[in-house]
Amino acid sequence: MGRRAKNKQGPPAPLPGTQESKGPSRRQLSKVRKQQRLQDSKKRSQDSDDDSQPQVKKIKTQAKQNGKKQVSASKQDESWDNASLDSDDELLDGDDEFPIGSDEEIDEDEEALEEASDEDDLDNDGVFPKVENDFLGSESEVEEDEEEAGDSDEDEDAMLDSDEDDIAEFAGLDERKSRKLEERAAREAAEAEAELRDSAMQTNIGEDGREFEEDEDEDQADISQINLRIKETVNILGNFKEMRDPSKSRQDYLDRLLKDIATYYGYSDFLAEKLFNLFSPAEAIEFFEANEVPRPVTIRTNTLRTRRRDLAQALINRGVNLEPIGKWTKVGLQVFESQVPIGATPEYLAGHYMLQAASSFLPVMALAPQEHERVLDMASAPGGKTTHIAALLKNTGMVFANDFSKDRLKSLTANITRLGAKNTVVCNYDGREFPKVIGGFDRVLLDAPCSGTGVISKDPGVKVNKTEKDFIDIPHLQKQLILCAIDSVDANSKTGGYIVYSTCSVTVDENEAVVDYALRKRPNIKLVSTGIEFGREGFVSYRGKTFHPSLNLTRRYYPHMHNMDGFYVAKFKKFSNKIPKAEKNGKGAEGQEADDENSNGPTTFLEDEDQNIMQGLYIFQYGQMLHFSLVHLTNNCGDFLHSEIFFNRIHAKASKESQTQEIT
Amino acid sequence: MRPLTEEETKTLFEKLAKYIGSNIKHLIDRPDETYCFRLHRDRVYYVSESIMRKAVSIGRDQLGSLGVCFGKMTKTGKFRLHITALDYLAQYAKHKMWVKPNGEMPFLYGNHVVKAHLGRVTEDTPEHQGVIILNMSDVPLGFGVTARSTTDSRKLQPTDIVAFHQADIGEYLREEDTLF
């Protein structure tokens, strides 16, 4: 066995002892190894730690046999190799500096052998296939390997011979030689120690690394614990009286739960709370869970080009596994799996179907456009709903497809022409300009831009990038848009006069609050049934805000309930083109606001008023009235009868007002 | 948006005639409604008059498209048919060519139609005649120009081209940026 080769293998033997003495645990050593791998440093001594010499030999032969394989493997990892090569070379150089020259007896053959075995060593390490394989198989080594691969057997023989020579020398018991051998042994021990010290130094780094990893482990444990804790807390909140810890309040539990949800599902604290408040605790968890799962892929048959039955047959022939979505739609198909890309089949290109989420069918179904009508789609890109409208119109009448973004106009036009809608006009306005550009539509669809809290499974970025400001700005825009949409409709249309407002968001700010605002600002509209039989009713009151009672005609859709994106649909009927002044004047405080509004034109927006509405204007107004009447009572307590009459009158007025609002 | 000039109308109709021949008159005299051609940003649109009148309210910069885009006027004064005109072309086409299922995808990737993929072709189609290309279930896939007449193409080798590719519905995906 070559000396230098042995040196390389040096550390193994003393290692267990030093472990005890120096302290670094076995685990730490493995960390050291990891660390070293990360640093691309000399790790091979560690790798072959426990290999005794005979094993090494075996491995060497294996290495030789596997030589070619390793060559190819190391070629794959050349980029790694280049990095690791330097350190290897340094190591070799370092070895050379040891005073081997003093061994005069060692003949040249042995020298040559040593070099050979050096290279063998290099091979040797490659035998242990690690994930970060082949630190040692450098390019130059590859070449050598290739050269040697042919005569590997000869090398092996020579090595065995040399070992026999060593034994013979021992047998001869030449004193000088034995002394030299002892010296050599001592030197080896010293080197081994040095190397160990090296590794010990690196152990420090390793310890750091381990701490870090342990932190990670803790996190790992935490996540599963958090999940458990979420479940427990939900349980407790579900049966609060019996299961609570008396020392904790409900708020404590809720705070803990919210924090856990934010951590576990990766929401910002703000959004987690906002969404959590929409549901009961148990349902909220279902909602958050559903947001982690993708919704099924659905397509809508383009009835301008084909029928659902034919399309299904054609797609099944292409190896697509599909089924109708449900009884509520006659054009939807749900795709379970497909052997072909569903967005590039000849049928898709021929416009036989559109890739469209099931929830996107709903607003158009609610709009229910009739033939020969003129319809406006205010925010239409990428054209799924627009083409659905065109299909329902059977290419009669006309559809104005508007979108704010010029970039999205291309895909919008592409989809419209691909699906064969010939009655469309594509335009690029800000939706808020609309009644001025062109009005008098029979129906208007406003699928408003929104925060996207209903489509978190599609775009998880929403979890963190929506801030409190977004939930002020976006609803503000939506309120402007909805008024424009309402103003763009002709109430005298024989068949129409409808507006559909929809968002792919589930928050109340963007849905009920906006609809309520529209009802307040435009007394000439009323909510009507969406005509879709499923979906949950919209909130009539929410966390202290009271909305118009007819808001129960709007519909909410949730991922966990309907297995479609979170969605909201509201349908209005406009029954008058004028905002009748008399009606407004009869409305007290609101009449005043309406007057202001008139003086500022139909599409201006009063911040104060918005604020009031956010705070629930109904309660506010009614409360104010009662308060006024009470003050009046106390002031005129002498004339009791008179004041009672007055009170009754006020009360009657208030209730009458709420009645008129119900009618509207 | 403006009506076509006489010269533009002539180049447009000459081009259309290559595919639908005398059926052009069906495009102009429709029983249901009056239709017209309008030019907007080099693109020629075929649109009903009622829609056109309403679309006048849309500003020039904001108008994206209206009705069906037939193609565009090139800067050299020629007319180039776009795939978006396929619906009308297929409806009134004089000559058609059907490709077998194994030839569908190659054609949709923009390749010419080779003899091996030819399923069926209208009788008596002359050489260099505009043809509509359909698949065997009569779904229009695009259009092109015959390389040989129907009789000549019988003698061709399986790998020889029978129709040159001009436009296909794959362009809705491939050319979305330039087409619209």
TrEMBL record, chain A:
**Residues annotated as the enzyme's active site:** 504
Biased composition annotated in UniProt, kind: Basic and acidic residues = 37-47, 173-198
Q: Which residues bind S-adenosyl-L-methionine?
A: 379-385, 403, 430, 447
For bias type Basic residues, the affected ranges are 24-36
Cell location: Nucleus, Nucleolus
Keyword annotations = Methyltransferase, Nucleus, Ribosome biogenesis, RNA-binding, S-adenosyl-L-methionine, Transferase
**Gene Ontology, cellular component aspect:** nucleolus
- Where does it mainly reside? nucleus
Q: Where is the composition biased (Acidic residues)?
A: 86-124, 140-168
Which Gene Ontology MF annotations are present? RNA binding; rRNA (cytosine-C5-)-methyltransferase activity
From the Swiss-Prot or TrEMBL record, give the protein name.
Answer: Nucleolar protein 2
Source organism per UniProt: Mortierella isabellina (Filamentous fungus)
From TrEMBL, chain B:
Please give the superkingdom of this protein's source. Answer: Eukaryota
Q: Which InterPro entries match?
A: NIP7_N, Nip7_N_euk, PUA, PUA-like_sf, PUA_sf, Ribosomal_synth_fac_NIP7, UPF0113_PUA
The alphabetized UniProt keywords are:
Nucleus, Ribosome biogenesis, RNA-binding
Q: Which SMART domains does the UniProt record give? A: PUA (SM00359)
| GO MF annotation list | RNA binding
Q: According to its record, what are the GO cellular component terms?
A: nucleolus
Any one Gene Ontology biological process term?
Answer: ribosome assembly
This molecule's function is given as: Required for proper 27S pre-rRNA processing and 60S ribosome subunit assembly.
To which protein family does this belong?
Belongs to the NIP7 family.
Q: What is this protein called?
A: 60S ribosome subunit biogenesis protein NIP7
The species this protein belongs to is Mortierella isabellina (Filamentous fungus)
